[in-house]
Design goal:
358 residues, alpha+beta, Rossmann fold, Dna Ligase, domain 1, D-amino Acid Aminotransferase, Chain A, domain 1, 3 domains, 5-stranded antiparallel beta sheet, 4-stranded mixed beta sheet, 13 strands, 23% strand, globular
Length: 358
């Protein structure tokens, strides 16, 4: 008997288009002989639109942008979708949402309330993994080495701009990188080499979030490792990113291809072992499940600094996470199968918890 899979994608986020690309890639990789696949599209405005079972693999993103022209895909709000019998009948939901309102624990919380199995990280890991400041604070508790940073809120910037600029100059060394705390895919990130550029970078980041993190730049190699599993996670080979510009921004990732991906990365065995040890430690301290991509800097003297983990990494066949596993002898379709099984395993375990007092 076929299992019913719900693909949840789009979202009210600056990473909407990235999510659509991921959904198209996953839909092409799913075995339609094994699964009944149902698209669930969240528009830029936050409307939920559930489509009929896909009769065949979509060929274009436009086919996944469910509209209302034919009258069959009428806009829904989230409650009307989640409270319908067909939503509850889905065996597994695959959230392919990037950024706020999808990767930050909000949708995961909805899935938990509805007791629906879903792929990937839970509420805590998703929310902590999305907020770069909370993530860094947890990494510090776990003893993971990382780059120096300063963070502040929009209101603090309005009230104490000069004091915050002084703090950055006193505590960090140029250049610095300015980031929205709650966003991914390098959206809103800027590099600053002086006070004037720092102000411009903060104003750009504030377009996307109320919390800003300023990180000291690091001279080192950018190394990433894929982590897969639940209670006993395992690591992929390591990969290296070599941007052909100042840093690995949104344009380099998704538009112009100005990036070289080296897989596997050339690393000493002791460095690779330490990377995987730290990747699994980060996975566990955030209480992750399913998948994570752990990003590091490796300096010239082989010091390892964790940058961040991504709890819903880019997932097209050309994204780093699937490529890392491909070079670890796990194909793209096999990787999706593994994630579905991990989601089922985690959900089954949760059903064994006692919810009533004797």
């Amino acid at each position: 008997m076929k299992r019913a899979i719900g693909l949840l994608y789009g979202g009210k986020s600056a990473e909407h288009e990235v999510s659509l690309s991921t959904a198209l890639a996953v839909s092409k990789a799913l075995d339609f002989e094994k699964y009944d696949v149902y698209p669930v599209y969240i528009t830029h405005d936050g409307e939920w639109r559930k489509g009929a079972r896909l009769a065949e693999t979509p060929e274009t993103i436009e086919q996944l942008e469910l509209g209302t022209a034919d009258g069959t895909n009428k806009p829904n709000d989230v409650s009307s979708f989640l409270l319908t019998a067909d939503a509850a009948a889905l065996d597994v939901i695959i959230p392919l949402l990037h950024g706020p309102n999808g990767e930050d624990g909000t949708v995961q919380g909805l899935m938990e309330v509805m007791n629906l199995p879903y792929v990937g990280n839970g509420v805590l890991a998703s929310s902590a993994g999305m907020d770069k400041v909370v993530m860094k604070q947890l990494f510090e508790i776990a003893g993971l080495k990382q780059t120096p940073y300063v963070y502040f809120l929009r209101n603090e910037w309005k009230l104490n701009q000069e004091a915050l600029l002084d703090q950055v100059e006193n505590e960090l060394v140029w250049p610095v990188f300015v980031k929205p705390a709650n966003l991914g895919s390098s959206v809103g990130i800027s590099r600053a080499e002086n006070r004037v550029e720092l102000v411009e970078a903060v104003l750009e980041a504030l377009k996307f979030d109320r919390k800003i993190v300023v990180e000291q730049g690091v001279v080192g190699r950018e190394i990433e490792v894929g982590v897969l599993g639940n209670d006993t996670p395992e690591c992929s080979v390591a990969g290296e990113i070599k941007p052909l510009k100042a840093f690995y921004d949104y344009q380099a990732k998704y538009k112009d291809g100005n990036t070289a991906l080296i897989i596997p990365a050339e690393l000493e065995s002791a460095v690779y072992e330490k990377l995987t040890e730290d990747a699994i430690k980060a996975f566990k301290v955030l209480d992750c499940s399913g998948l994570v991509r752990a990003d590091f800097f490796v300096t010239e003297d082989n010091e390892i600094l964790i940058n961040e983990v991504n709890t819903m990494p880019g997932f097209t066949p050309f994204s780093m996470f699937p490529l890392l596993w491909q070079h670890s002898d796990v194909t793209y379709p096999e990787l999706i199968e593994r994630l579905i099984e991990l989601a089922t395993e985690r959900h089954t375990e949760k059903q064994q918890l006692q919810v009533k007092m004797n």
